[in-house]
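Session log. Operator J.P. requested a structure for one protein chain; no other inputs attached. Running the standard single-chain path with token output.
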Amino acid sequence: MKRSLLILILVGVLAALGAAGWAWLFSGLPSVETLPARLNTPSVRITDRQGRLLYEALPTEGGRHAVVALEQIPLALRQATIATEDRSFYSHPGVDWQGILRAAWINLRGSETRVGGSTITQQVARNLLMEQEERYERSYRRKLREALLAWQLTRSLSKEEVLGLYLNQTYYGGMAYGAEAAAQTFFGKPAAQLDLAECALLAGLPQAPAPYNPFTDMQAAQARQKVVLGLMEADGYITAEQRALAEREPLVLAESPYPIEAPHFVMMVRAQLDEIFTPEQIYQHGGLVVRTTLDLDWQGHAERAIAQQLEELRRTPDGLGHNVNNAALVALDPQTGEILALVGSPDYFDAEHGGAINMANAPRQPGSALKPLVYAAAMNPQQAQPWTAATMLLDVTTSFLTPQGQAYVPANYDFNEHGPVLLRDALASSLNIPAVLTMQHVGLPELFALASRLGITTLKDPEAYNLSLALGGGEVRLLELVQVYGAFANGGYQVTPETILEVSDWQGNLLYQAAPMPQARVLDERLAWLISDILSDNDARRLGFGAYSSLRLDRPAAVKTGTTTNFHDNWTVGYTPGLVVGVWAGNTDYRPMRDVSGLTGAAPIWHQFMRTVLRDQPPQAFAQPPGLARVEICALSGLLPTQACPYRRWEWFIEGTQPTRRDNLYRVVTLDSATGRLATASTPPERRIDQVVLDLPIQAQAWARSQGLALYSDLLPGEGVELGQAAPVLRAGEALRMLAPATGSVYVLSTGLTAGAQRIRLEAVGAAGLRQVVLYVDGQAVASFAGGPYQAWWELSLGSHRAWAEAVGEAGEKVTSEVVTFVVQTEP
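Structure written below.
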């Protein structure tokens, strides 16, 4: 009885000890079934439209991680990993008992645990299934638990699946988890492109990622690489010759372990990603692969075009350069809205010049690049009396009254007047005075409504602006202006910019796909075509830009430049039917450029990019919609020609808007050869001469006389003067009058321009018989004349000023004009 009791007690003790040992050894052992939830979170991979990596956004915990199929990992890396970590990988059941016993013997002979002996399967079990605090324990308990988990993994997964887990989940150092992330981090290429030498280096990293990191100790990394190559040769994976070649191969590391292409675009993509998914959704699928609209090749072309032009603008004969340090470019498909290239600045990391600011999205003044909207509003066929491409506008000095009661006197870029011009030439050649006349005709509310429909969000309150908006006095974003031009290119449909094509999880399951761009019509298709036809008319732009400017391509292309009066901003936006490209150049901090226009600053970037990306594509004409009529017109008035009209041309009209009246500017008159005036009933037949003269509006008559043109008003009997002489444009009782500047004018003196480049025109008109006409400013004579026209340029200076004209009359009396006052102030 006592013996039986002792046996029962002994069995109980042994059972208790066994249970305690079992609990001590296997309590809390994770289940293999929890493996999917324990995998490293792949980072969000943002790629271009062809799948080329732009940026890898790391998760908040962990590091760079991408999962690829085992077949995409080079055989050399698989073999190097097996040779280095577990040479009997394919023959043992997940645990190499011989290796464990060998490691145990070595450890017992020493005073501490020094050798692991873990197989690839055990490493997968330890790193993915065990809690972080346990996996770094150096104990026999952890080893036994690890072995059991490895045995269970082998029963659940194939050898290839286990190897795939190891190669996709193991930490290689440098914040890189998995072979794909390691290849991108250390060599800047996908794992599939690694060669033998690179594979051997990566395979040696997991045992000690920090000491073997090639970025910090290339010598240690290469020594470890040689060990791996030796093991591969010993196991028969490579020959001695292959080993020697790999050891001699110079390793070229990635210039940046975490590169980013098109950084401003990537930031826009990440912002849109946050609108589509919640933060939890972004990582709940195991990370995302975001395929964007960007073409990395086109992005490179854009960046090079900007870099080359900025370098060119730094070189001037005086060595000072043009003071242009920044530029941006947006290339967009007007049919789909897809952004194909976007450069927000030449260097995202250039803090000195505000490189991190995305100038493609920064509001800036567009200069004349806004004019197509102004003219499109005036030509809208839905209006009661729409203007046409043949509407005549007077490009002569004109004073406009602002809502504040001040005079606004715009001037052309070249400070010249061109008299009567047709709308086609005024828009294509970017003449300023006709644009302001058009803005006055359209009205700010109508322009703002059109701009809003086309996608501009920065122009909100018409009452906050004046007529200078026609010349770019408001602020717009480059991306939004490209949207606007896209509507001209695609036949009048609103363009919605798109950055993301699709989003998938790491297994390729589609989670999001961009919807097709909505077909929302915002312009009459005939009007869109007419604007495109005007902006692509190289003959029409000859007046402003010459015949062979950088705006001309080897194919039909509509284009418009813009330069602000203070030289802060420089633009060129142009398009073909399938591509819209906008360029901004200037300085982020608003410092003015020196001697730079839209033609010499932004246009060369636009030209180079367009020529490069389109060189392999056939030219494409703008598809002409139905509902247009081609009519012969008189080239000066835009009306139907008469026999007196010496210059004619053909013009396109939206049906119903073509002219019905005959030209009224050219008149055939009979002159008296003795007086040079209109013949009267008493003029003898032998003195009668028929001649074509101009009957221009009074606003254009001073310009016509400066050009030596014969005016009908100058030929009236008793009122005109001899041909070729200046005639007065005076009020009743006046003998001398100042035409410019207009009284109350306010001019702004830019601190960034030379004084000689900032001038205004002084102009007077006088009655016949005046002599010694002198123009004065603040009592100082500026210029004197023996005969008309009485025009001169005066260099701006700060302050309030008074200007007038003085002359000597026919009887020797002093004749003085009224005094006009104006102000010159600094820019705000």
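Operator note: The two ends are 111 Å apart (CA to CA).
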